[in-house]
Amino acid sequence: MILSFENVSFDYNGHSILKEISFLMDTGEFLYLIGPSGAGKTTVLKLIYMDLKPKTGVVSIGEFNSQFMKEKYIPMLRRKLGIIFQDFRLLSDRTIEENLAFVLHSVNSPKKEVKRKIFNALSLVGLSHRRNSYPNELSGGEQQRVVIARAIINDPILILADEPTGNLDPVTSKQIMEILRDINARGTAVLVATHNYDLVKKFPARILKLQNEKILPADINEL
Fold this sequence. Notes:
The protein has 2 domains: 1-80 and 158-223, P-loop containing nucleotide triphosphate hydrolases (Rossmann fold); 89-155, no CATH class. Helices cover 33% and strands 27% of the residues. The chain has helices at residues 41-48, 74-79, 96-106, 111-124, 140-152, 170-185, 197-202; strands at residues 3-12, 15-25, 30-34, 56-61, 64-65, 81-84, 158-162, 189-194, 206-211, 214-218. The strands form 2 sheets. It has a 6-stranded mixed sheet with strand order 6-7-8-3-9-10, with helices on both faces. Strands 2-1-4-5 form a 4-stranded antiparallel sheet, with helices on one face. Strand 7 (158-162), helix 6 and strand 8 form a beta-alpha-beta unit. The chain starts with a strand and ends in a 5-residue tail after the last strand.
């Protein structure tokens, strides 16, 4: 087991978002978290990387536990996670290589490993030839592949993808999902939050659905 929610509730400004949700995720699993916009998918992800803390209940990721987590240890948790944002969040004044190097320098990676890790990550997403380009010189799909490279560059135990295909056309969305499934096939757990049910059907895996503040197992035939 890599991830656990135990009776987790979360309120925002007195409004209940999640109510006593519980689920487990296995090491190396590919898992979908579905639900309409505003259902709380992003909130679940933020609870995992501890940008938010539960009102009640416990979130556990590997050896980290929200109940006993001190603020100073949160960066250590996030180094073990790869986070893929819908809006890319790349540094516009730096090349793709410099964007990835920034991540590695922030965790004090040895200089001799930086080039190798950047090359391996960009090769996996098919962008090693664009390492000297700037983000605004890339298409949306290419930028999202850079974001995936950034997410995997530190060999995370779990990748969190928040609507990773939300701004992309169907063909590019399919390519992004193929990359995520390939990463998962190499042993990394992947949790994808999405409301793109067509992609869920094309790339089936276990599904959890957020509905009415609760989280429930869902079947692909229900979508």
